[in-house]
Amino acid sequence: MQKSAQDLRQASRRPAAVRRRGASTEKTAQTRQTIVDAALAEFLEKGFADATIESVSKRAGVAKGLIYRYFEAKEALFSAVVQQEIVHAHIDVDESKRSPGESVEAFLRRTLLASIRNIDKKSRADIARVVIAEGARFPALVEIYRRDVIDPLTEKIKRLAVSAKKSGEPVNGRVLKNPHLLLAPIWAGIVINKFLDKANPVDIGEMFEVQLDMIFSGERNK
To answer: Cα separation of 50 and 120, whole Å?
Structure first.
C-alpha cells in the first residue's frame, strides 16, 4: 500500500528528531564549568583587555562558537567568573545566618573575617585587581562587580549594623551611613599588595580585624 504524504512527512521527521537530541544537562553544566574556569585563568593571567574568546576557547579545549552558545560576550564571561569565584563562594553574611544569641560582632568575626584572612590565597583579590586596573577602560566590569558583589554586601553590613545598634552593641554609628567603612581595609590591602608595594605585602585579614575592633568600640559609639 502506498504511504500517504502525511506518513512520509512523519517518517522523515523521526531521524531528524534523533539527530537534534541535545546534550544532557550534566554535560551542558560540565561544558559551561570548563569555559568559566578557562576564562578565570585567562583574565587573571592576561587581564580583561588582552583575554579573548578565542584564547578562552583554546584553553578550554572547545570551539570558539560553542562559547557564544553560553555567553554572548566577554563581559558575560567575566560576570560568570565573578558569580562563581565570589558570589557563590562567598561566606554568607546575611543576618538570618546568625546563631541564636550571637552578637553581630561575633558573627562578622566568624564569617567575614574568616573569609578575608584567605583573600590573597583565593582568586577574589586578583579579580578585584582586574576591576581596579581596567575598570576605567571597561565600565561594564565595574558595574558587574558593584551589582553582584559590593551592593549586596554593603546592604547586608548596613542591616547588621542596625541590628547591633538596636541590641545595644557598642557599634560605631557611622557605619550605618557608611557601610563601606568596614570594607575599606580590604580595598586598601588589595591596592597595596597588587600595585603599590608587592615586595612588602600587608596582612589584609589583620587590617580588617583592626577595623572590626575600632567599629565595635564603645568609645566610638556615636
So the answer is: 23
Question: Domain boundaries in the chain?
Answer: 5-74, 90-220
pLDDT digits (tens, 9 = 90+) for 104-154: 999 999 999 988 988 887 899 999 999 999 999 999 999 999 999 999 999
CATH number of this structure's domain 90-220, picked from the four choices 1.10.357, 2.60.40, 3.30.1150, 1.25.40:
1.10.357
Report the C-alpha gap between 42 and 47 in whole angstroms. 7
Cell of 205: 585579614
d(CA 169, CA 221): 9
Q: Is 110 exposed, middle or buried (0-12, 13-18, 19+ CB in 10 A)?
A: middle
Q: What is the CATH number of domain 5-74?
A: 1.10.10.60
Q: Which of 70, 74, 84 is nearest to 42 (CA)?
A: 74
3-state secondary structure of 136: coil
Cell numbers that stand for 125 in this block:
583579590
> CA angle 141-142-143, nearest 5°?
90
Global confidence as pTM: 0.83
Name residue 9's amino acid: R
Q: Which of 94, 42, 44 is nearest to 71 (CA)?
A: 42
CA angle, corner 117, sides to 113 and 121, nearest 5?
145
Neighbours of 114 (CB within 10 A): 12
> What was the pLDDT predicted at 90?
61
